[in-house]
Design a protein that fits this description.
mainly alpha, about 425 residues, two-stranded antiparallel sheet, Preprotein translocase SecY subunit, globular, three-stranded antiparallel sheet
Length: about 425
């Protein structure tokens, strides 16, 4: 408690740190104001029914910071930027020059990589805004527009997404923490009061044990997510001793930390995209006037909407994508090469290929635990909804992982800023 009071005292007293925190708060206020400005011609009732039928839109609403549920001018949120980042990272597996840029050229290479992601965000924002407006217009949610009106809406929505990307970058540069993650975090947290109010409105005293059990279980799940998110497998590293003149350098022992959940929330996003986009397509095909095609599409749709089938496929896809994304973002060969060039080695393991194989072997084992954990967290809301019969009494999924990751990252960066000022 005394440490917390001391940190608060340092934050309040230090002008530059206080300015960083106030900048983040101001940027989030601007974002929330933008998120409640709707585009014209919305049928609210139809919109709510449409969201209830498509879980994928719920995921997109998370990444839009709640803007999609209101069909606001920032309805896409930072979704196009996240999509662009994922596409660029996947391309590193297929384009050797991008792989070298991301893994081998240091900070300058990463800045150039991020710039490419920003440029890719612009066409993706236009494509996504046009697609959403077309889809929502076909469902009667948005008034049908064509020509200049449609172009205006596409420009406004695309500009809103790019504006949020810029605000996120400013928060990262002049504030504390990752700006894009904080925007998503703010959107998730902003929806909690409404959810609590809805539950209090329908609360019955007979359901008190259910609510108490849910609170206890939710706290246990959050504690497990924090523990797994922070878990690391350290690989001991020694630096060879070097004598230059009359001085000796090296001889230091340290470790290489391998995170248990190396992939973060990206595998869940990949899995949901692959699983739920076909449902939207099948819904469209099932409404076609061709009886045979419509029946096949309806059969496939019924199969996908079966709770057990859906949960099983979902778990499997998350498991597979965890290994895939870890392979994309973590290259044991590059790590082994960098260790060898800096005069470092793993005790008992030869430098070069042997070190790369050793790191890959450990990474494969710990990724198994991380993949099982992500799969469990992904299907946990489905299991809880089936058990309690209440769609609001569910915890887990992408939102929980994002909230925990952002809070932990923000706490670490504030601690680092406080420590810098103490010295």
């Amino acid at each position: 408690m005394s440490k917390l009071v001391h940190k608060l005292h340092v934050i309040i007293r230090d002008e530059s740190l206080r300015a960083r925190i106030l900048f983040v708060c101001g940027a989030l206020v601007i974002f929330r104001l933008l998120a409640v400005i709707p585009i014209p011609g919305i049928d609210i009732l139809t919109l709510e029914q449409f969201f209830a039928n498509y879980e994928f839109l719920g995921l997109l609403n998370v990444f839009s910071g709640g803007g999609l549920a209101n069909l606001s001018i920032v309805m896409l949120g930072v979704g196009p930027y996240i999509t662009a980042t994922i596409v660029m990272q996947v391309l590193t597996m297929m384009v050797p020059s991008l792989k070298a840029l991301y893994h081998e050229e240091g900070e300058a290479g990463r800045k150039k990589f991020i710039q490419y992601s920003r440029l890719l965000t612009v066409p993706l924002a236009f494509i996504q805004s046009f697609s959403f407006l077309t889809l929502l217009s076909s469902q009667g949610i948005v008034a049908h527009a064509s020509g200049f009106d449609l172009l205006t809406n596409v420009l406004v929505i695309s500009a809103g997404s790019i504006l949020l990307m810029w605000i996120g970058e400013l928060m990262s540069e002049f504030g504390i923490g990752n700006g894009v993650s904080l925007i998503i975090f703010a959107g998730i947290v902003a929806g909690i009061p409404a959810m609590i109010g809805q539950q209090l409105f329908v609360f019955e005293i007979a359901q008190l044990p259910l609510y108490l059990g849910f609170i206890i279980f939710a706290l246990l799940v959050i504690a497990c997510v924090v523990w797994i998110t922070e878990a690391e497998r350290p690989i001991p590293i020694n630096y060879a001793r070097q004598i230059r003149g009359n001085k000796m350098y090296g001889g230091v022992s340290t470790y290489l930390p391998l995170r248990l959940n190396q992939a973060g929330v990206i595998p869940i996003i990949f899995a949901l995209s692959l699983l739920l986009f076909p449902q939207m397509i099948l819904n469209f095909v099932a409404s076609l006037p061709f009886e045979t095609i419509s029946n096949i599409a309806q059969f496939a749709l019924d199969l996908l909407t079966n709770g057990w089938v859906y949960a099983g496929i979902y778990f499997f896809l998350v498991f597979v994508f965890t290994y895939f994304y870890t392979a994309v973002t973590f290259d044991p060969d590059t790590i082994a090469k960098n260790l060898h060039e800096s005069g470092a080695f793993v005790p008992g393991v030869r430098p070069g290929n042997a070190t790369s194989e050793y790191i890959a072997k450990i990474l494969t084992r710990i990724t198994l635990v991380g993949a099982l954990f992500l799969g469990f967290i992904a299907v946990l809301p489905l299991a809880m909804q089936a058990y309690t019969g209440n769609t609001s009494l569910a915890i887990g999924g992408t939102a929980l992982l994002i909230v925990v990751s952002v809070v932990l990252d923000l706490a670490k960066k504030i601690d680092a800023q406080v420590s810098m000022r103490e010295y």
